[in-house]
Write a structure and sequence with these properties.
Layout (H helix, E strand, L loop, with lengths): L10 E5 L4 H11 L3 E6 L15 H5 L4 H5 L4 E5 L5 H13 L2 E4 L3 H6 L4 H7 L4 E6 L14 H7 L20 H24 L3 E6 H7 L2 H10 L17 E5 L4 E5 L3 H10 L14 H6 L1 H12 L4 H10 L4 E3 L3 H5 L2 H6 L2 E3 L5 E3 L24 H11 L1
Parallel strand pairs: 1-2, 1-4, 2-3, 4-5, 5-6
Antiparallel strand pairs: 7-8, 8-9, 10-11
Helix pairs in contact: 1-8
């Protein structure tokens, strides 16, 4: 495999379910790792049967939520409640480089797969545990989903308007944020193991991931004691001219934060008079007259559609973008050119990685998402041959 797949030859055991854990192993697989998804003998990962709007696919165990991060893996169905199943799992771990799991500690302790037990039997292994609250606190055994963590970390309280009340983000951003944090941690641990020759335990907290995604807000609160307020579509910079504005048709999001941005905006809107207007010429004056400036910006933007304004403003150097639907975003020329959406051999289109290494065009899954237990016989045969 190409040098742009740095995890080529790495064996990852994916003992995870739902979104965050499977996404982490999916990312590692896109970068070359051989990923074996360990599932129960009964119905496997619960997300196979729920999530998304395709009820027919979900009923067959191939929901769109599962397909999103299921490609590039092999599925191994095993009964971890049985002695033979546990033995097979440990056989697998003895050959693996990385174990990724997202079960609460008490579940792992019952199966004798907790971090201490695993480290004793497999000292070479990098064991990445992903849980809602992380180890060591009173909530370490508390089950959690993305929506629970959005509530508990303060993200929901900071989202929405004063009238709307707290609002969850429109997508499970903490699941995927946690997956990326875990992937970063695994890469770091692999780098360390290359020198030390020893495995390690990684403790990933969804709660702390949520707080990390709000880092500047957290620091501001810690320094000032000011709780974040729901500001709707206004930018966190609190700069006049940074926010969302209606147009003749559509909405423009402006990020006018620097002095140069304001000058560019004034010129692009043919309002150079603002640059000599005592109310707007200086930053502090604009803050004092923010409502009036916003009103005037809106007045100008209402003269054209957002589709017309976007190229004009962007060419002028104004940080800006028009509000798009998901369909518009995915169909944009730029997203298509980048190859962010890739199609598996089963004809299913899925998101790939948001970065490229060494000029690679795009990362594509090397196999379709497996059916439940699809590779069990193949893996058992491999374990038996090598035992």
């Amino acid at each position: 495999m190409s040098k742009t797949h740095p995890f080529d030859g790495l064996l990852v055991v994916d003992f995870t379910h739902v979104l965050a854990g499977p996404a982490c192993s999916y990312y590692l697989g896109l970068l070359g790792a051989d990923v074996i998804k360990v599932e129960s003998l009964t119905k496997g990962d619960a997300i196979r049967h729920r999530g998304g709007t395709d009820a027919v696919a979900a009923s067959s165990g191939m929901s769109t939520s599962y397909l999103t991060q299921g490609a590039g893996k092999r599925s191994f169905a095993v009964d971890l409640e049985s002695t033979s199943g546990i033995d097979q799992f440990h056989q697998l771990l003895s050959k693996a480089d990385v174990l990724i799991e997202n079960h609460v500690p008490r579940t792992l302790e019952r199966l004798e797969l907790d971090e201490n037990s695993v480290a004793t039997r497999h000292p070479h292994l990098i064991h990445c545990a992903m849980t809602g609250y992380g180890r060591g606190g009173p909530q370490e055994n508390t089950a959690a989903y993305d929506v629970n963590i959005q509530a508990s970390c303060g993200l929901m309280e900071a989202t929405g308007t004063q009238d709307s009340g707290p609002i969850r983000t429109g997508a499970p951003v903490l699941d995927y944020g946690t997956a990326m944090a875990a992937s970063f941690a695994v890469a770091s641990a692999l780098f360390e193991r290359a020198t030390s020759g020893k495995g390690t335990f990684i403790d990933v907290s969804m709660l702390e991931t949520g707080l990390s995604l709000m880092s500047s807000t957290v620091t501001d609160f810690l320094k000032t004691g000011n709780e974040p307020k729901r500001r709707g579509n206004l930018a966190n910079s609190r700069s006049p001219g940074a926010g969302s504005f209606p147009c003749k048709e559509g909405v423009m999001s402006l990020g006018v934060n620097e002095e140069s941005h304001f000058v560019s905006l004034a010129k692009a809107l043919d309002r150079v008079d603002w640059l000599n207007d005592a109310r707007f010429a200086e930053r502090e004056a604009r803050k004092s007259n923010a409502a009036e400036l916003a009103s005037q910006i809106e007045f100008e933007l209402l003269k054209r559609t957002a589709e017309e304004w976007e190229p004009l403003l962007q060419t002028a150097g104004v940080p800006s973008a028009r509000l798009r639907s998901m369909a518009e975003a995915l169909n944009s020329e730029h997203v298509k050119k980048r190859g962010f959406v890739q199609t598996t051999e089963a004809g299913v289109s899925v998101p790939t990685l948001p970065f490229r290494i060494g000029g690679v065009a795009a990362y594509k899954p090397n196999r379709k998402a497996p059916a439940h237990g699809e590779h069990t016989d193949e893996i058992l045969s491999w374990l038996s041959d090598d035992s």
